[in-house]
């Protein structure tokens, strides 16, 4: 993999704005947006360099800004951006911890062409920003992880922007008991415009919210209730009857929707449903899943942690819905074994993604009809086998040889994984982006380097592979400039210098986790209190 000429030119320009005369005058708007992203990703908004950035890149032509996890993005920077007269269509500010209401007001108050507003994980966002967020074309509002955003702010935004069709309030913890008031305001203000609602993690959400949605939002297409444990089957049934356009439904950990007193709620699911998650929902008896047999359009099914899943139930369910499934997640289902997976091989003929994490009895041999059939194997893009300790290495080799369109592959915790598997992946799976080999201790630099050379890796987990050195990190840096995250905790031979080089080489911000609690004693450092010098322990004089 080689960095493109465009990327090389952009990074060169980004580092030399101060020395190229009137460079901003010659740059297209899209290139200014890309340069601004690069500078934010690499923390280049320093006091010395910021004037050059604002002079050359802040212009009235900007239409998109994306600020990601940069603590140099402050209220002052947002104020300058707002003052340049830009009419933004898309604003994404994620994890910029110095941003407050004041900065957002300064940026938003003139943005009447805004279509997408994502303000994620901003701990100082509370109320005032909502007074400035007014756009007659706003469609998408994402506030996930803004833990201090209050109810009045959300209510104001939806009441002044009735065009919003997607709203995400996942893990907005301050809403608390007010979440039901907020959802009622959302339902009444957005009415039939609302198509996508995500309130994951809002544990105080109750039946009153579902009733409001049922009454006003008949065009709802997706609803995420992950962790909304107060919701009952009665209110959910009312919603399912009213929202006939529903295509995606996440009921993860909604413990009260399938109780002994209400075992038949799954029989009321709309037939056009395409995504369903029942993660962590314990069924009163496994035959309850018979309610899914009418979902002939179902493409994604998540059954994580259902302990009483049986072979008989899968033999009843998959002949009806397996043909449409492209994603099946059975992770944490303790009863899943090779016999049960025969139904998956027989009926899930269009399967693309299979998740079997922590299914400790599975060897994978009954899945071979999928992986040995060239047509079916080419459909596979994602396989997650984390902690499948009985998984056959021969099966993994067949996967690496035949699943040529594989993009995501996790085999964390499998001690028998060796270099030959990674070398086969490198030879055949040229689209591989996301890999996890945590605690696969037989791997060496040789296979990791070859994989990084041949595959466009974006997420790499190598934690606990103690034999790896800086050679692997340098290979990633030179071959995979679009990395998003690298996990190398426990890799004691990997140095901080190599990881800094990796960060500098990547186009985007790369998240690196490198904790080494079990350092070699010869690498431990101590400070000489007399000289201020840092020495290795073995260099210190013993008195």
Quick structural overview:
By secondary structure, the protein is of the alpha/beta class. The protein has 20 helices and 20 strands.
Fold blueprint:
Blueprint: H1 5-14, H2 23-26, H3 29-41, H4 50-57, E1 64-68, H5 75-83, E2 90-94, H6 101-108, E3 116-120, H7 129-132, E4 140-142, H8 151-160, E5 166-168, H9 179-190, E6 196-198, H10 207-216, E7 222-224, H11 233-242, E8 248-250, E9 275-277, E10 300-302, H12 311-321, E11 327-329, H13 341-347, E12 353-355, H14 368-372, H15 374-379, E13 382-384, H16 393-402, E14 408-410, H17 419-428, E15 434-436, H18 445-454, E16 459-461, H19 470-479, E17 485-487, H20 496-505, E18 511-513, E19 525-527, E20 534-536
Parallel strand pairs: 1-2, 2-3, 3-4, 4-5, 5-6, 6-7, 7-8, 8-9, 9-10, 10-11, 11-12, 12-13, 13-14, 14-15, 15-16, 16-17, 17-18
Antiparallel strand pairs: 19-20
Number of domains: 4
Overall morphology: flat
Structural class: alpha/beta
Number of strands: 20
Sheet with the most strands, sense and barrel status: 18 strands, parallel
Straight-line N-to-C gap: 54 Å
CATH architecture of the largest domain: Alpha-Beta Horseshoe
Q: In the CATH scheme, what's the topology name of the largest domain?
A: Leucine-rich repeat, LRR (right-handed beta-alpha superhelix)
Low-confidence stretches: 520-543
Taken as a percent bin, the fraction of beta residues is 5-15%
Relevant terms:
543 residues; alpha/beta; Leucine-rich repeat, LRR (right-handed beta-alpha superhelix); 18-stranded parallel beta sheet; two-stranded antiparallel sheet; 20 helices; flat; disordered C terminus
């Amino acid at each position: 993999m080689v960095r493109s000429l465009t990327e090389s030119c952009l990074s060169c320009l980004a580092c030399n704005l101060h020395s190229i005369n009137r460079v901003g005058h010659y740059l297209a708007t899209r290139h200014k947006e890309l340069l601004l992203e690069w500078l934010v990703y690499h923390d280049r908004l320093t006091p010395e360099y910021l004037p050059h950035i604002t002079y050359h890149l802040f212009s009235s032509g900007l239409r998109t800004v994306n600020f990601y996890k940069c603590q140099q993005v402050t209220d002052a920077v947002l104020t300058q951006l707002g003052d340049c007269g830009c009419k933004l269509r898309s604003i994404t500010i994620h994890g910029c911890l110095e941003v407050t209401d004041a900065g957002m007001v300064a940026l938003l108050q003139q943005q009447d062409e805004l279509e997408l507003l994502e303000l994620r994980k901003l701990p100082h966002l509370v109320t005032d920003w909502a007074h400035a967020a007014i756009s007659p074309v706003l469609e998408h509002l994402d506030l996930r992880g803004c833990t201090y955003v209050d109810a009045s702010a959300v209510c104001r935004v939806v009441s002044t922007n009735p065009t919003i069709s997607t709203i995400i309030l996942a893990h907005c913890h301050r809403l608390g008991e007010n979440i039901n008031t907020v959802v009622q305001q959302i339902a009444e203000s957005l009415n039939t415009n609302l198509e996508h609602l995500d309130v994951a993690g809002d544990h105080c959400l109750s039946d009153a919210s579902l009733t409001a949605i049922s009454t006003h939002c008949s065009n709802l297409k997706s609803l995420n209730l992950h962790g909304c444990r107060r919701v009952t089957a009665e209110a959910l049934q009312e919603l399912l009857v009213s929202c006939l356009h529903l295509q995606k439904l996440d009921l993860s950990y909604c413990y009260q929707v399938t109780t002994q007193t209400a075992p038949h709620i799954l029989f009321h699911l709309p037939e056009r449903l395409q995504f369903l998650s029942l993660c962590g929902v314990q069924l009163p008896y496994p035959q309850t899943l018979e309610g899914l047999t009418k979902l002939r359009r179902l493409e994604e099914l998540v059954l994580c942690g259902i302990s009483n899943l049986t072979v008989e139930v899968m033999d009843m369910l998959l002949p009806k819905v397996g043909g449409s499934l492209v994603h099946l997640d059975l992770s944490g289902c303790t009863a899943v074994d090779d016999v049960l997976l025969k139904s998956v091989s027989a009926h899930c003929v269009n399967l693309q993604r299979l998740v079997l994490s922590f299914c400790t009895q599975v060897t994978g041999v009954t899945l071979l009809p999928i992986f040995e059939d060239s047509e079916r194997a080419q459909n596979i893009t994602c396989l997650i086998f984390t902690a499948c300790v009985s998984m056959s290495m021969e099966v993994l080799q067949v996967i690496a040889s035949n699943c040529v369109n594989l993009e995501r592959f996790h085999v964390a915790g499998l001690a028998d994984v060796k270099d030959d598997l990674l070398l086969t992946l490198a030879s055949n799976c040229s689209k591989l982006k996301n890999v996890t080999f945590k605690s696969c201790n037989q791997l060496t630099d040789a296979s990791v380097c070859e994989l990084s050379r041949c595959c466009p890796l974006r997420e790499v987990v190598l934690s606990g592979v103690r034999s790896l050195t800086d050679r692997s990190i340098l290979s990633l840096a030179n071959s995979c400039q679009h990395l998003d995250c690298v996990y190398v905790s426990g890799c004691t031979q990997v140095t901080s210098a190599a990881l800094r080089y990796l960060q500098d080489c990547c186009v985007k911000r790369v998240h690196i986790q490198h904790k080494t609690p079990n350092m070699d004693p010869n690498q431990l450092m101590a400070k000489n209190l007399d000289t201020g010098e840092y020495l290795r322990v073995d260099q210190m004089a013993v008195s």
